[in-house]
Amino acid sequence: MNVEQALQTLKDNGYKYTGKREEMIRIFDRETRYMSAKEMFELMRQDYPSLSFDTIYRNLSLFQDLNIVEYTELSGERIYRLTCATDHHHHHIICTDCGKTEPIALCPMNAILGEPDGFKITGHKFEIYGQCVNCGDVRS
Description:
Layout: H1 3-12, H2 19-31, E1 35-36, H3 37-45, H4 53-65, E2 69-74, E3 77-82, E4 91-95, E5 101-104, H5 108-112, E6 127-130
Parallel strand pairs: 4-6
Antiparallel strand pairs: 1-3, 2-3, 4-5
Helix pairs in contact: 3-4
């Protein structure tokens, strides 16, 4: 999802797109990584000194409900990023230090389980965590 699509989603669902909402979406677009509510709050406080943490959480919840952002949990904390622009089925590898994400080209579920007898899989989530080349001692 890009900024224009996210703003249109707000409009299509009857929500105003305020300066704060637009700025949050633009930050997600610029950062292209998972971010915590606290990180978002810190980045936005510069332009909105009276901003409350509750405003960040309410908007993240709204964005999640409208499928503008997706989330995962890392070290017991929920972190968010813009929903992927692609509709095809894929998973991610996520840097535990900076939140950078990269898509995984294959679905590990197919190799692990396939379609079990007597059970229809309707959804799953698979993430791999590690350190990207910029954060860890990774040999390329």
